[in-house]
Specification:
With 330 residues, this protein is of the alpha/beta class. Strands 3, 4, 5, 6, 7, 14 and 15 form a seven-stranded mixed β-sheet that branches. Strands 10-9-8-11-12-13 form a six-stranded parallel β-sheet, sandwiched between helices. α1 crosses α10 and α2 crosses α3. The longest helix has 23 residues. The mean pLDDT is 96.
């Protein structure tokens, strides 16, 4: 029986969360019809909250964190997959309700797995991970809402983060004129290299304002939430659309109905966790073609599994930009 290493979260008697590496065997894994040898995972904001115990992410213990994984099928009881198939998995509650990707092996439901798209490597799939998948869902949403490249500027908030960085690159690739908003304006050169035409301070968006401000944005992808999202809505032009996919700036939304009833602005929520499989596969196929490997590599750092706990702390402290891939083999 194969042995492997996993990062395991436990809850102590006083309610605090501990994270420690353990040597496990396949017998320790939960039920599932596909056994995967995990090659890579990735680091997301939710992982940072989970591993540091800052947020109540894990629903049961012990729990292996990591909301993404990519690797190779070892065993399968499903006709959809055979040993040797390369697969990826994001969402469906892994790392929260089900053991996740911060391990060298995982047993999961076949219905959660996406075959690795043609032309995409396992490491590149995790350089995108939930962040890239969410960004693509947001791009698809504003496209379907009628926001076109020939219109007004498109705004991306939290632009130096994982979702924001990829959203900037995806929109620029599609021909949109992108304005990147960030609390880290010293990263302007980085954002312009991804395709941003302009960079603004996120605090401008979050400042108190009138129920409606001047029309600035044809559409927006907001990764922040809270007052930032409220500010974006006030400045979105008539017929525009805002895709909301984050709450790092707060989970409440203090706004009025005016953007919706006077300008017809659409606020579209992006759920990357339980996204239907048909749309999920379509988004991953788009990612394989719309995000050049060299652009992806320029925003990605690869670390070992042993470095994941420190990287989680760094992410929450605001010391991480772009994407971090976790190599489960080291």
């Amino acid at each position: 029986m194969a042995g492997f290493t996993a990062l395991v979260l436990d809850k102590t008697a006083d309610g605090s969360i501990t994270a420690a590496f353990r040597d496990l065997t396949d017998a320790d894994l939960p039920a599932g019809d596909v056994l995967v040898s995990v090659h890579y995972s990735s680091l997301n904001y939710k992982d940072g909250l989970n591993v540091t115990g800052t947020g109540k992410i894990a629903r049961s213990f012990p729990m292996v964190p990591g909301i993404d994984l990519a690797g190779e099928v070892v065993e399968s009881q499903s006709p959809r997959f055979r040993p040797g198939d390369q697969v990826l998995l994001t969402g469906y509650g892994i790392g929260e309700r089900h053991w996740g990707g911060f391990a060298q092996r995982a047993r999961v439901a076949a219905d959660w797995l996406v075959p690795l798209p043609a032309g995409m490597s396992l490491v590149h799939s995790m350089a995108m991970g939930t962040a890239g998948f969410t960004a693509m869902l947001a791009v698809m949403a504003i496209e379907q809402a009628g926001v076109v490249p020939a219109g007004r500027e498109e705004l991306v908030s939290g632009a130096t983060g994982g979702v924001g960085s990829i959203a900037v690159a995806l929109l620029a690739h599609r021909g949109y004129r992108v304005v990147a908003a960030s609390g880290r304006t010293e990263q302007s050169a980085y954002l312009r290299a991804l395709g941003a035409a302009d960079v603004i301070d996120r605090n401008v968006l979050a400042a108190p304002g009138r129920p409606l401000e001047s029309e600035c944005w044809g559409g927006a992808i907001d990764t922040v939430g809270g007052d930032t999202l409220a500010g974006i809505l006030r400045s979105t032009s008539a017929g525009g659309a805002v895709a909301a996919c984050g709450n790092a700036g707060g989970h409440t939304l203090n706004t009025t109905v005016f953007p919706f009833i006077l300008r017809g602005v659409q606020l579209i929520g992006i759920d990357s966790v339980m996204c239907p499989m048909e749309r999920r596969i379509a988004a991953w196929a788009r990612l394989a073609g719309d995000l050049r490997p060299d652009v992806l590599e320029s925003i990605t750092q690869v670390i070992g599994l042993s470095e994941a706990p420190q990287a989680c702390a760094d992410l929450l402290a605001g010391h991480v930009r772009g994407r971090i891939v976790i190599d489960a083999g080291r």
